[in-house]
Amino acid sequence: xxxxKEPPFAHGTVAPSAVVLVNLGTPDAxxxxxxxxxxxxFLSDPRVVEIPRVVWWFIMNLIIxxxxxxxxxxxxxxxxxxxxxxLKVHTAKQAALLQYMLGQRGHGDVxxxxxxxxxxxxxxxxxxxxxxxxxxxxxVLPAYPQYSGTTTASVWDALFAHYAKxxxxxxxxxxxxxxxxxxxxxxxxxxxxxYWDAHGRGDKLVMSFHGVPKRTLLLGDPxxxxxxxxxxxLADRLKLKPEDYVVTxxxxxxxxxxxxxxxxxxxxxxxxxxxxxxxxxxxxFTSDCLETLEEIAMExxxxxxxAGGKEFNYIPCLNESPAWITAMAExxxxxxxxxxxxxxxxxxxxxxxDADAGRKDALGMGAA
Length: 368
Description:
Layout: E1 17-25, H1 32-43, H2 53-79, H3 86-104, E2 110-118, H4 123-132, E3 137-142, H5 152-163, E4 171-174, H6 182-199, E5 204-210, H7 214-218, H8 223-238, E6 245-250, H9 263-272, E7 277-281, H10 290-306, E8 311-315, H11 322-333, H12 345-362
């Protein structure tokens, strides 16, 4: 097997460290063509769909892609912003703010970049860029707090597949999960309290996590358990009683049984039982995206209101909240312990100036 050609090396070259913030991905545009291309890459991942490849090829190419691409494109069009895909915009801002925060905490040598598991910028593309910059240490931080074979493990697959063709592999540190990390739970708590302080508190808090097929749980995937632990720790921090909240799972696809209870039927049942107002939060998503802005804030809201509910409130994801950026920095620090300082004072000052500029842009204070 041929290996990739290594970039030219010059003695004395600074070999700093990097953090790669990896999110799921997004189409490049809210169009049928772009969405079809994105869905094909996503649904072709055997981690996502565990169906025999030959059978799945026919289902995907002859049924799903021809009919689902247009429908999904319309949904993306409903949430697309002037800056682009919300998920990509938020992830880019998080990376810039994490770069700044790490610099403030004494890690100005560490470069932070984002990558997408599906779509662009792809993991191989970003790793190639880091290789060209002679990065010798990389920490990979998935945007998924709860580990799942369908998400986190797929990131590892892409990472290892890329480096299987690289001769000079950097040191790698992989963040597996942080579903019970105190700073992550604290950021969720602060976000919910801030929303309640501004809008009042509903009769029931619905914690909706992305669903996966039930068979993954039966085969040993820890995702379900990690979601429940996140919910329990968050409820404890919020001082909620068991009857004050419910944990549900959304985004069911296909006819197979997925993790239950399902979000939409649950909120409909709550409405029928006389629960007038519900607040819905999605702790498993660190950036707002199609699944939160369209599926929850629009579709699930309609399901609740149609069933007799009086008021539906969606609590936004952590996005660029200061508590979440601090939490990301704490999680990152725990995985880069011992990395040496490689930049000169002049280079470090330049890196911090770049980080300051990135922070201003991320907060909307820089040039558009």
